[in-house]
């Protein structure tokens, strides 16, 4: 891999500040010439990437899924390859791509790994890596503060989910796929591009980030406690086989609701319904472990 790297670390990510100097040392040892830019607000990531696009050969981002989501539009525009240092709480994109949370190992993958082109999801002009959703997950996002994530790590997702599940109330929505319209009453609609989201839950049993399709599921359950029963199955994506869960696949999906509802993309609220989703095949290049099974099987 070429050696001029723009390193962007979200200092507010769970492991961001303490890992910055360590990452720089590892990368320099591996032969990289590193330009490091301090990022206090992930909203500025895209403009920094565009600013340096002619001076570097790749972008290395240290943070979680929200940090990566903040940079994705600039990665599409510049077509610079992406290296990932998983420094966030859930690190679902890294999990999907087989990138370990170990900082030395993640740096080695950036130095010696394979470049793979992966798909991106797109909703209302915003790209996403993992999942875009509305309903229950939005309430979880709104409750899942930085302080909670920093203190409890991956367990923060489960704890916050349990707090909001009992408040879940169904809403009406219209799903349009392949010119067919479905009217549903649901507590959550999720549209997945990758495999993992929400701290390690799988969108579908066979979902991958390069299958050139979107996987939608709708939780059409009547009682809040049914969600609790579903949670273990959601770790492997087996929930799509349960009664009360509607599963659909396609390259383009539309979702309409009576009033605008917020949509969560990779853990950040970025747009509202009505929503037009589509998959963008092979949109960007990412450095992944050399074993092809890591990306193909989502392990």
Automatic annotation (TrEMBL):
SMART domains: DAGKc. Keywords: ATP-binding, Kinase, Lipid biosynthesis, Lipid metabolism, Nucleotide-binding, Phospholipid biosynthesis, Phospholipid metabolism, Transferase. GO terms for biological process: phospholipid biosynthetic process. Pfam families: DAGK_cat (PF00781), YegS_C (PF19279). One of its GO terms (molecular function) is ATP binding. Its cofactor is Mg(2+). InterPro entries: ATP-NAD_kinase_N, Diacylglycerol/lipid_kinase, Diacylglycerol_kinase_cat_dom, Lipid_Phosphate_FormReg, NAD/diacylglycerol_kinase_sf, YegS/DAGK_C. It comes from the Bacteria. Belongs to the diacylglycerol/lipid kinase family. This is Lipid kinase. It comes from Komarekiella delphini-convector SJRDD-AB1.
């Amino acid at each position: 891999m070429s050696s001029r790297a723009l390193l962007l670390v979200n200092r507010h990510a769970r492991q961001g500040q303490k890992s910055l100097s360590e990452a720089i040392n590892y990368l320099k040892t591996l032969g990289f010439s590193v330009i490091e830019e301090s990022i206090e607000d992930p909203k500025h990531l895209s403009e920094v990437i565009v600013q340096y696009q002619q001076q570097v050969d790749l972008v290395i981002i240290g943070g979680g899924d929200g940090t990566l989501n903040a940079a994705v539009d600039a990665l599409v525009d510049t077509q610079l390859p992406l290296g990932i240092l998983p420094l966030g709480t859930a690190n679902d994109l890294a999990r999907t791509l087989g990138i370990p949370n170990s900082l030395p190992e993640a740096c080695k993958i950036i130095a010696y790994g394979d470049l793979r082109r992966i798909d991106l999801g797109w909703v209302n002009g915003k790209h996403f890596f993992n999942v875009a959703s509305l309903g229950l997950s939005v309430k979880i996002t709104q409750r899942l503060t930085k302080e909670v994530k920093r203190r409890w790590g991956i367990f923060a997702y489960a704890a916050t989910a349990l707090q909001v599940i009992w408040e879940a109330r169904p809403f009406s929505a219209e799903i349009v796929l392949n010119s067919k319209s479905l009217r549903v009453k649901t507590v959550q609609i999720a549209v997945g591009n990758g495999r993992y989201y929400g701290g390690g839950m799988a969108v579908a049993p066979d979902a991958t980030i390069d299958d050139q399709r979107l996987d939608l599921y709708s939780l059409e359950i009547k009682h809040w406690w049914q969600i609790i029963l579903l949670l273990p199955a959601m770790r492997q994506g087996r929930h799509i086989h349960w009664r009360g869960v509607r599963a659909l696949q396609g390259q383009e999906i539309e979702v309409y609701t009576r009033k605008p509802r917020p949509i969560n993309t990779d853990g950040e609220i970025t747009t509202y319904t009505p929503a037009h989703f589509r998959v963008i095949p092979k949109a960007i290049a990412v450095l992944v472990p050399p074993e092809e099974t890591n990306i193909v099987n989502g392990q």
